[in-house]
Write a structure and sequence with these properties.
This protein is of the alpha+beta class. The chain has helices at about 5, 150-160, 185-195, 200-209, and strands at about 5-10, 15, 20-35, 45-55, 65-70, 80, 85-90, 95-105, 115-120, 135-145. β1 (about 5-10) and β2 (about 15) form a beta hairpin.
Length: about 210
């Protein structure tokens, strides 16, 4: 296949790979600890919200920053994290849906993507008896799909071997292990839920240009 057949020029002059796809798996999660005797009406739990690699690897070569949009009742409800670990810590009493906006490395030339995730404080099996010993973990696997990616970005990330996060999360011991070969149904759902659809967006932009 010639260069002209495998690449095309995008609306901003970038060279993109035709019919190519780069899939980048991540995990969005919350980990909540009941405060027990220290709990108050407004602060019953300490919880963490995070974005991580499926093997806790550094994902900074693809993700530039993560913006966590919390419930509007929180002071400074929009929290921006610009380096791994992409994680925030908070206290509260109620569950709510969080909006996470991911910004990608500049050379990807892609728009941000949003992921929604539920903060869970109580074990669904026994919500009336929270435990101070075992946190409530809610994690979801997502696949970020870059369709017809920028050639230079694709070459960089596919030849990059990520190492561990320099400052690992303090709650890493509670993270679940994701085995893709055992979770194909969940992975398929994730791919349908979080596809960047770069190719279609690119074509729309070219039509409007």
């Amino acid at each position: 296949m010639s260069t002209a057949e495998r690449t095309f020029v995008g609306s901003r002059g970038e060279t993109r790979l035709r019919h190519k796809e780069f899939v980048f798996p991540v995990v969005v999660g919350t980990c909540a600890f009941y405060l027990g005797k220290k709990a108050t009406e407004t602060q019953s739990h300490k919880w963490y919200l995070y974005l991580r690699g499926i093997n806790n690897e550094d994902i900074g070569h693809v993700v530039k920053k993560a913006i966590f949009n919390l419930h509007p009742t929180f002071p400074t409800p929009q929290r921006e994290v610009t380096a791994p670990p992409f994680e925030i810590e908070e206290h509260g009493w109620g569950e709510f849906e969080v909006n996470v906006v991911l910004h990608f490395a500049d050379d990807s030339q892609e728009q941000p993507v949003e992921i929604y995730h539920k903060l869970k404080l109580y074990d669904e099996a026994d919500p009336n008896n929270p435990s101070t010993k075992k946190p409530v973990l809610n994690e979801q696997y997502e696949e970020l799909i870059f369709s017809e990616p920028v050639e230079s970005f694709f070459n960089r990330v596919t030849n990059f071997q990520p190492g561990p996060v320099q400052s690992p999360s303090g709650i890493q011991a509670h993270f679940r292990h994701f085995a893709p070969e055992e979770d194909m149904q969940r992975i398929t759902a994730a791919r349908q839920r979080v596809a960047l659809m770069c190719a279609s967006v690119q074509r729309q932009a070219e039509m409007l240009a």
